[in-house]
Amino acid sequence: MSPAVPLPAAPLLELRDLDVSFRTEGGWLRAVQGLSFTLGAGETLAIVGESGSGKSVSALSVMRLIPDPPGKITGGDILYQGQSLLGFSERQMRQLRGNDISMIFQEPMTSLNPVLSIGQQIGEAIRLHQGADRPEARARALDMLRLVQIPEAEKRLDAYPHALSGGMRQRVMIAMALACGPRILIADEPTTALDVTIQAQVLDLMRDLKDRTKAAILLITHDLGVVAEMAERVIVIYAGRKVEEGPVRDLLRCPRHPYTRGLLGAVPRLGASLKAEKAGRLLEIPGTVPRLDQPIIGCAFAPRCAYAVDRCHRERPPLEARDPGHLAACWRAHEMEPL
Amino acid sequence: MLAYAIRRLLATIPVMVIVAIIVFSLLYLTPGDPAAVLAGEQATADDIARLRLALGLDDPFLVRFGHWVAGVLRGDLGTSVFSNRPVLDLIVQRLEPTVALTAASLFIAVLIAVPLGVVAAWQSGRIIDRLAMGFAVLGFSMPVFVLSYLLIMLLSVEWNVLPVQGYVPIAYGFWPWATHLLLPALSLGIVNAALIARITRASMLEILGQDYIRTARAKGLSAPAILIRHALKNAAVPIITVIGISFALLISGVVVTETVFNIPGMGRLVVDAILRRDYPVIQGIILIFSMAYVLINLLVDLSYGLFDPRIRY
């Protein structure tokens, strides 16, 4: 029975102070530290960061797919529709995976099973979660292939992944992920491995399908160009911590964290190299992501930061709101001008 | 596929020719005189010389080899020096026990090894993995005859559940046949299982680290579905290959096992033939064994396409 007065809706997905660590020979490596965010129904939230920043790990932990050992969720909570996923049994998680929450991965070349046909791989989730028999699952798989605009879908149903191009394989991955009508689609670098023209097609397709399916998207990427195209809200993470969060427009117009500014500087712009004064090199952020197996004192980004002052090396800046809905963890966030 | 099979079959001909040359020369070069064995202890030097002439043992190597090959091509493997009967007849008589023992051993080996390897890979690094691989090392390092006697002691002498030795043809009923076969097939199977289990584990471990296994988990599939449907089919090619290779191991194991369990098969036949220097019989059996090995491995190669659609001939 549903209550007469609807309760304030819990967000579809909420991460609260999530800690994920990996056991290494040198001790525990803290890949994600105190990460919190919410994802509303139908929303697209982007998580942005460099390789090794913990963005894929946080995505995998939502599915509870962190390989354990060596990985472990060591703190915090993950709530799906207000229920803690950490309290779910493995069987309950399996019912959720591929059904309520599904995922597409970065490498379409290796993320499909080479010895099973496309139709089998799409149909499998439909049979598992919706109890469809083989012919039903096959028919549904065919619908999905048409939905992701794969030409000659009937023929592709019995094809094996090696007969498909990278872009087609990523479409198959998307078809697979959407087969059971999930409420959340986690897309981990969905276009990174693709050619630029194919990237644009796949992004168009994802936007189109999002409008049709009303699924929320958690988009993991390092590419702020993709973020600008797809997302409504952005979270920037660095060394396992959230350093900035905001609506995509605000954040791209006036990034409050020097790391975000650095990432934006590292985005190649069409025609940029034609300007005489900027000819030649791309801007890049000097240095590398710090080691996570040792405690970090102060701001993790300070050693690479052009704005760093003494205080940054001593004290970690708290995450504070600068504009409505726009948070940044930087002692000098108030000094940052719009780009 | 058919064209490939025929090509591969033709390619076995040079292999068989080389095997034939080696088999024939090996026995030609080994010391000892079949004529002397045949003539018995009372024979004079003259008797032996006459016998050698009659058997053609004094002809040049190439002439003798030529006679033998011409015979083999007609399906005539020669005549046993000892029993004076056609070698092919002797082999056909002994075929059933050996085929039954080999097939049953291979079946038991695969039945033990593949699940063991799969579970070990799944539980990699945990106690089940260690136990399984400990068992594999033990099985592999134990000679067949030691294991045979241990099993006889336990199952036949102590518990009295299986016959100690001997063979009953399947024509006399399935149950007597199976009970007599179980113990030898088990001893031979366990030794082979060890090798296959290790390869299965290694191959599965590699596959379980692949991206598409993560995809399968993200779909919500259960562990058995992932292990069998997604992983084992990918891991099959190395496993099938080692099963083919272990067939060679099995053949040498058959000789020992048939002797231990007193099974009148080809293994016993070849041991007896060696003791009697009965060259034609030895040659015939080794030739048949080699042919079987080559054919089994041809089948193995052809089966790859069943498991991996990327392999096409």
UniProtKB/TrEMBL annotation, chain A:
GO molecular function ontology, one term from the record: ATP binding
Assigned GO CC terms: plasma membrane
Keyword list, A-Z: ATP-binding, Cell membrane, Membrane, Nucleotide-binding, Transport
Protein name per the record: ABC transporter ATP-binding protein
SUPFAM superfamilies: P-loop containing nucleoside triphosphate hydrolases
Subcellular location, record wording: Cell inner membrane
Family, per entry: Belongs to the ABC transporter superfamily.
The keyword Repeat belongs to this UniProt entry's keyword annotation: no
One of the GO BP terms on file: peptide transport
NCBIfam families: oligo_HPY (TIGR01727)
Membrane-related topology note: Peripheral membrane protein
Primary localization class, coarse: membrane
Organism: Iodidimonas nitroreducens
UniProt-listed Gene3D superfamilies: P-loop containing nucleotide triphosphate hydrolases (3.40.50.300)
InterPro entries for this protein: AAA+_ATPase, ABC_Ni/Peptide_Import, ABC_transporter-like_ATP-bd, ABC_transporter-like_CS, Oligopep_ABC_C, P-loop_NTPase
Domain ABC transporter: 15-264
Keyword ATP-binding: yes
PROSITE patterns: ABC_TRANSPORTER_1 (PS00211), ABC_TRANSPORTER_2 (PS50893)
Automatic annotation (TrEMBL), chain B:
Keywords assigned: Cell membrane, Membrane, Transmembrane, Transmembrane helix, Transport
Membrane topology type: Multi-pass membrane protein
ABC transmembrane type-1 domain: residues covered: 95-300
InterPro entries: BPD_transp_1_N, MetI-like, MetI-like_sf
Residues annotated as transmembrane: 9-29, 99-122, 134-157, 177-197, 235-261, 281-307
Protein localization: Cell membrane
GO CC list: plasma membrane
One Pfam family matching this protein: BPD_transp_1
GO MF terms, alphabetically ordered: dipeptide transmembrane transporter activity
Family assignment from sequence similarity: Belongs to the binding-protein-dependent transport system permease family.
Protein name: ABC transporter permease
Native source organism of the sequence: Iodidimonas nitroreducens
High-level lineage: Bacteria, Pseudomonadati, Pseudomonadota, Alphaproteobacteria, Iodidimonadales
